[in-house]
Design a protein that fits this description.
The chain has about 425 residues and is of the alpha/beta class. About 30% of the residues lie in helices and about 20% in strands. The strands form three sheets. It has a seven-stranded mixed beta sheet, covered by helices on one side. A five-stranded mixed beta sheet has the order 4-8-7-5-6. It is built from eleven helices and 15 strands. The protein is elongated, with a radius of gyration of 23 Å. The longest helix has 20 residues. α2 runs parallel beside α7, α3 runs parallel beside α4 and α5 crosses α6. Bound molecules: S-adenosylmethionine (SAM). S-adenosylmethionine binds next to α6. The site of S-adenosylmethionine has 25 residues, from α6.
């Protein structure tokens, strides 16, 4: 978060997100009615939401936790300043009135992230922050809170760069990609936040003009379920709990939290557009179906087990959105036999040359049957367009954890290929 921006003196929240997602997250937050009147500033690795007064921060944090599909967490900065060593970090943490946050009967945990920090040990830095909180409480009450690394009442996050440290209270607790519906995962599931970033980068918002969405290699169903929740107006955080629900500064507004959740439930509606999904593996379609059930969108997704190379077009126009099987993580399966069993499917494409063949066949299937559709394909392989013998019209850099990927856009135009080359474009915000 910007420790020295012009607005840094104002009360603020910092919402970290995946690299490249910052403008999309800023755009998502600007569309939230509850954030009207705040200043929303994309920053490196996240977005800052500036409020006018500290009193506004708890309500803003509640709305951000409930509504953001792209943020990883919602962090409330409580101290920042320059530091050179762990003593400075201890002194920084002592500037906070911890008795407003935690009692000796509650628990805490300190995580540390660093970029170009001169510190020798981040564990020791975490220990000094913990000591500062415990010493402050002991001086105020005679007792110290204890540490709980699994489910702390107050999760703290210290971020240190070369010269500055920021100490945050993490109002989310568990990371926001954990929506509470994905129990069945499969082999290479996308994080929910990345699936949502793919949809956002494509500008797909579930509006009638966005049209149908299809993921023919759906795995655990992450992309289709995120899309269906958008199409049904379901807030991503509606099915989970947040750390702020146990925090003292939020107690006064907890009745409003119940109203905010009720209002979000009342907004849920029938799907505005159809969502289709499938996988060559029956096991995966079954997982995805069960996840969709838990996410409240089973009725909004048409699942079919089958080979993407043979999948009939479900509508005249629409958006294909997928992260296809790739290389060593998951080999493409199937030789075009719809409904192939997992075993016979596994005997099909196995990566390498066969993988390139899979993509060439996929593209030729799309060119024959999906003209008028737009395909968005996430891949770590820069050569994907040449393997597909398609020219991409856009290329958005996105990170799948530590793996740098591109989200390629292909406009499926009858008979011919687009000849215009794309250069990397930042996600539109
Ligand atoms: C990288 S995973 C997709 C992960 C998914 N996005 C998720 O979040 O769980 C690729 C999926 O493609 C499926 N697959 C492989 N070959 C296929 C084919 N020919 N047709 C349809 N699905 C296929 C695999 O079974 C696997 O579940």
């Amino acid at each position: 978060m910007p420790a020295r921006s012009e607005t840094a003196a104002l009360p603020a929240l910092f919402l970290p997100c995946g690299q490249g997602v910052e403008p999309l997250l800023a755009d998502e937050l600007k569309r939230l009615p509850a954030l009207a009147g705040t200043t929303i500033e994309p920053w490196r690795g996240g977005v800052v939401v500036h409020a006018d007064t500290v009193d506004q921060v708890p309500l803003l944090a509640m709305h951000c936790n409930l509504e953001s599909r792209l943020a990883q967490r919602v962090l409330w900065p409580v101290a920042f300043g320059e530091y050179r060593n762990e003593h400075d970090l201890y002194a920084l943490a002592r500037t906070v009135d911890w008795s407003a946050w935690i009692t000796p009967r509650e628990t805490l945990k300190v995580d540390v992230t660093a970029a170009r920090s001169p510190l020798q040990s981040l564990n020791f830095a975490a220990l000094r922050i913990k000591d500062a909180v415990c010493d402050a409480l002991r001086e105020a009450t005679g007792e110290r809170p204890s540490v709980d690394t699994r489910r702390p009442d107050i999760p703290l996050l210290l971020h240190v760069d070369a010269t500055d440290a920021t100490l945050y209270v993490d109002t989310s607790g568990e990371a926001l990609f954990k929506r509470g519906w994905r129990d069945d995962k499969g082999e290479a599931p996308l994080k929910e936040t990345l699936a949502a970033a793919m949809l956002a980068a494509a500008g797909w918002q579930g509006r009638a003009e966005d049209g149908a969405l299809l993921d023919p290699c759906c795995g655990a169903g992450t992309i289709a379920i995120e899309a269906a929740q958008i199409a049904c107006g379901i807030a991503p955080g509606l099915q989970r709990r947040f750390a702020f629900e146990r925090m003292a500064p939020f107690r006064a507004v907890l009745p409003q939290w119940q109203q905010i959740k009720q209002a979000a439930k009342a907004r849920v509606h029938a799907p505005t557009v159809p969502v289709f999904a499938g996988d060559v593996s029956f096991r995966m379609t079954d997982f995805a179906t069960r996840n969709a059930e838990r996410a409240g969108v089973r009725h909004a997704i048409d699942f079919k087990t089958g080979d993407a190379l043979q999948r009939p077009v479900p509508r005249e126009r629409g958006t294909l959105m997928l992260n296809p099987p790739y290389g060593e993580r998951i080999a493409p399966k199937g030789r075009g036999q719809a409904g192939a069993s997992d075993r016979s499917a596994r005997e099909g494409f196995e990566g390498g040359a066969e993988s390139a063949d899979f993509f060439a066949q996929l593209a030729s299937h799309w060119k024959k049957h999906y003209t008028g559709w737009t395909a968005w394909v996430l891949s770590p392989d820069a050569k994907l367009p040449s393997q597909m013998r398609l020219k991409e019209s856009r290329r958005v850099p996105l990170w799948n954890g530590p793996i740098e990927c591109r989200l390629f856009r292909f406009d499926l135009i009858a008979g011919s290929l687009r000849r215009t080359a794309a250069s990397d474009t930042p996600p539109a915000g």
